[in-house]
């Protein structure tokens, strides 16, 4: 039984030149996740479900009480720690600079979606947290800058997610190591290593897409969806269609069982919905570390040069053979 804290320290020992900062930052995120988990578990009896007084975030989406609570928890824990110079969050239009002598010494900045799939909260369906960690390009000792955050996904140093599901899991990967999953033992309040060296199957049985959008997507996506849905065996479709309404939950299934997640552009959402910097990049980073692929339809997600913290991108991500199959579908020129 190895705890998350012990695991990060063990990893550190493999690199004598390492300073322990990344390990400290990951432990901080783990601590905040446990605090959010406590709130999520009692949400229905603690009056923290539903909308947060009608507030609307920078994305134009209604903020749920749990969105605000998770956001504040992650920000406060990282601000009071010593391993993070600043945060970009889905819930805040501008970057949050922890301009404090201890934080200004930190090498790392974090981008995050504190509560992914928050419309699931009211029906006790899975929700998650997604995070991406970059090394700063600005000078240590000074406050972090916009350039520290606006780096392409290929520069990520680490990334991960937390799934508040039938059990709570913390999954992270770093450039140097594989992806490892930890399950929370609620009675002890510790994450224990449960899924070492995660690898994504190259094939899968599920594709994750909301069919309500079928009519608005382009012909290439429809061709692929039709292939997935084609009757092959006793009239059953080739793959099962799933859609948890929470990217973290959908992707977690894909990490373990294989499959593909699609959130394409459509006529009335020409940029797609999901955010490049704190949803797509971290999932693409973990997916590639596990042997899968992630594309926006024309290039690898992690090659995209960002121009805005909150920019959106279409995404096709998951098991290698399924993404290859999608990419082999003819491009729609209209
Ligand atoms: P959120 O971060 O505001 O919760 O939005 C992200 C979620 C994903 O988890 C999910 O796959 C998608 O939005 C569902 O989108 P839609 O609103 O089109 O159903
Ligand atoms: Mg999200």
UniProtKB/TrEMBL annotation:
Catalysed reactions, semicolon-separated: beta-D-fructose 1,6-bisphosphate + H2O = beta-D-fructose 6-phosphate + phosphate
Cofactor note: Binds 2 magnesium ions per subunit.
Gene3D superfamilies from the UniProt entry: 3.40.190.80, Fructose-1,6-Bisphosphatase, subunit A, domain 1 (3.30.540.10)
Localization, UniProt: Cytoplasm
Fructose-1-6-bisphosphatase class 1 C-terminal domain mapped to chain residues: 201-329
Binding sites annotated in the UniProt record for Mg(2+) 2: 113, 116, 279
Main location: cytoplasm
GO BP, sorted A to Z: fructose 1,6-bisphosphate metabolic process; fructose 6-phosphate metabolic process; fructose metabolic process; gluconeogenesis; sucrose biosynthetic process
Catalytic class of the enzyme: hydrolase
GO function terms (MF aspect): fructose 1,6-bisphosphate 1-phosphatase activity; magnesium ion binding
GO CC terms: cytosol
PANTHER family recorded: FRUCTOSE-1,6-BISPHOSPHATASE-RELATED, SEDOHEPTULOSE-1,7-BISPHOSPHATASE, CHLOROPLASTIC
Subunit structure: Homotetramer.
Protein's recorded name: Fructose-1,6-bisphosphatase class 1
Source organism per UniProt: Arachidicoccus rhizosphaerae
